[in-house]
Design a protein that fits this description.
15 helices; eight-stranded mixed β-sheet; 477 residues; single chain; globular
Length: 477
Amino acid sequence: MTVDIHVDLAGGRGRKEQIYRQIRAAILDGRLRPGETLTPTRELAERLAVSRNTVSAAYDQLTAEGFLTATVGAGTFVRSGIHREKPAPRPVPEGTGVSATELWAGVPKPPRSFAPAPEYDFRAGVPDVTLFPFDTWRRLVAQQLRGSGADVLTYGDPAGLPALRAAIVRQVGVSRDVVADPDDVLVTSGAQQAVDLLARVLLRPGDKVAVEDPGYPPPRHLFESLGAQVIGVPVDDEGIVVSRIPPGVRLVHVTPSHQYPLGLAMSLARRMELISWARRNDAVLVEDDYDTDFRYGGRPLEPLYSLDTTGRVLYVGSFSKVLYPSMRLGFLVAPPALREPLRKAKYLSDWQSGGPAQAALAQFMEEGGFARHVRRMRRVYQSRHQVLAAALKSDFADLLTPVPCAAGLHLSATGECGTRRLVRAARRHGVSLYALGDFTMRRTEVRGLVFGFGAIATERIVPGLRRLREIAEELRD
């Protein structure tokens, strides 16, 4: 592979020496790697406006010192086996530079990635990507690139491809009774961007926002980063406690179908109470309906969006947990009054989500591949849910009490052993999971654990819990 070399010729003398030293430094600090082909001498000489002999002399010196090797007719290459130096940090003068606003000081760092994956992976919200139909997906993506590639590779409507928006309307209409028009749908880069766009369109700095406590942290931190005043509202067995929402709240973010992280479903009475509250207080409800494709029992409750008659509910969904996380495709369904503002916000944010992935997903849904994959994964996850619940009941009955849950990719349990200390010790021994305390805004620790079962194979659930039990016992001694 031929590499374009950047050489800066400062001044009018010693040009050969400058070329030599800059290429040598690039080799030593790893910017030029073994086997890479250098720019031909004629081409580099033309670019630098120097004679070809000057460039050739620099190459010859590097070759003589063992940095390069040349092959007639093939080019000049970086030799292997060179001892490389660690690049020196770029010096930054004291008292200069830039700094972020104070809002970002309280935003936590992104969670660290697990590569390789932990031995026993109980992380919540992680699907089993090994069971995704990659052969079918590769065919669909290749078909989009081979066919009318210009349609999906150029700039398009910020709202998303019409075919995908129509497919989403059909999907949520059949599976969730969400009746909408394709023009009501905005395709986003995941659910998090959907919440971000809604916040930008609806909120001003200082506005009050209510979130579930415990709840999903990223939306809370997103609202805070935009200058909103975020208030945690407790959750009971029926969902968010509406009577505890303070006056003046402009927006409420909820996960009613599968509360994160407790896993319970908001009762119908509580849903109606929340919608009535929003109408009386001129507020907006953001319904994050994640994980609803994976329901294992009980009668599904109607989404807030379907129960609302005043256009105050904004419906957010994602494909990250249904298909695979790095796809980064989600959507939101909003009332007509927000269509243009949301398109503008999407355009200013990143213009549009990836065209080939949108087109492939639309075809995947149209051909029935999406529905087949959901049905298959529902059976897999239901089996894991049952194994996990049974093992917690038998092996942790004296330590943890599972929270009743009939959907999603995780199961929570409360108990005195469910501390951050146990979670840290477990991770050191190859068991990765979360503490309930990681999801609350309260200063006092909420004791409990969150067990994800999307990424862990069924046969590894029981051995993983046994190891966790051993760690818990050691901490009690």
